[in-house]
Amino acid sequence: MRQSSAADGAPLAGAVGKEGRFATLTFERDVAASPSVLWQAWTAPAARAVWAAPSPSVTVEFLEADTRIGGREVSLCKVEGAPEIRCEIGWLELRPEACSVNYEVLSSGDVKQSVALVTANVSGTQEGSRLVLTVQLSSLAEDMAPGYREGFGVGLDNLADTAERTLLLQRVIQAPRSIVWGAWMNAETLPQWWGPEGFSCQTKRIDLRAGGEWVFDMIGPDGTVFPNHHRYHEIRPEGRIGYALHWGENGPKHADAWASFEDEDGATKVTLGMVFSTSAECREAKGFGAVELGLQTLGKLEAFVTPR
Fold first, then answer.
1. Distance between CA atoms of 294 and 218, rounded to whole angstroms?
2. Are 267 and 145 in contact (CB under 8 A)?
3. What pLDDT, in 10s, does the model give residues 160-193?
4. Cα torsion at 272, 275, 281, 282 (round to 10°)?
5. pLDDT the model gives residue 3
C-alpha cells in the first residue's frame, strides 16, 4: 500500500526578483519496500532509467551516469514537437539508505531554465519506508515551480512503483574488487559459477561488453532447462554492469538488472538488483525463492574467487 502527498512551496520570504522565481517544494511518499531497496531504486542508474520518464509520451535518454559524490548524471528529456530539455545532476552527498543531496540544472539549447538543490531523506523498516524530498528551486527563464511540482510528483509515483517491484540481493565477498570483477566479466569463468547450488550453465553465445549478450541455458538439478538471454547495455569497469533479462533467446524482457561492486574493508560488496516488469512477477519470483536462490549464486561466486 502506498500513500502520497505533496506540500506546495510558496515563494520564499525576501526572494529577490519577480514573484515566484524562488520556491521550496516538498514531496513525501510511503513506499512498500525496505530503505535499502528504495535507496537502490533512487540512486542506481539502471533503476532511475526505469522510472525517470513521467509519461509514455516522454523519452529520457541517459548520456552519462556516475552515482558517487562528485559524480554527474546527464540526460535528455524528449517530447515530440517540443525542444529537448537537458538535465544535469551532480551528486553532492550520498549517505546510503539515509540521505542524498544533489544539484540539478535544466537547460533548453543554450538557455538555462532553472537550478535546484534536491535533498532526499529516507527512513523506515524492512516492511516499508518513507521518502521526503525537498527541492529548493531557482527559476531562471520562467516560473518553473508548476512544472517541477507536476514532474517530481509523477516521477516519485513512478519511483515508488519501481521500488515495489525491485528485488535486491547483497553480499560482501572476501576478495578484492578486481578479482570479483574479473570472475564476473570473463567469458570462461562466468558460466562456471553462475546459478544457484546444483545448477549449471551451457553457453550458446557470450560477448561481455556494452551492446553484447549472453545466451545460455541454465540446467536444474533435475535436468530442467531454463533458457536465458542477458543483453548488456552498460559496462563500467570494476564498478557497474547494466543489463536486461529475457525469457530465452530474443524472448520477452522480464526485468531490468544491474550489478554494482564497491570496496568494503578490503572485501567487495556486490549488489544485484532486478526491476521486474510487474509487481505480480516480482511477488511470484520471491514466492518461488528467487532471493534465496540468488544469494546462493553470489555464494558460489565467493567460493569461486576464494578457493580453499
1. 13
2. no
3. 999 999 999 999 999 999 999 999 999 999 999 9
4. 50
5. 37
**Residue 22 carries which side chain, given as an amino acid letter?**
F
Which region among 9-13, 42-46, 83-87 has the lowest average model confidence (pLDDT)?
A: 9-13
E strands, 22-175, where?
22-31, 58-65, 72-79, 85-95, 99-108, 111-124, 129-139, 166-173
Q: Which residue has the cell 539508505?
A: 97
Beta strands 166-173; 200-206: pairing state: unpaired
Q: What is the CA angle 243-271-122, rounded to 5?
A: 110
**Helix H or strand E segment including 155:** helix 145-164
Determine contact, residues 192/167, Cβ cutoff 8 Å.
no
Polymer length of the chain: 308
Q: What is the pTM of this model?
A: 0.84
What residues does 29 pair with on adjacent strands? 4, 131
CA distance 123 to 181: 31
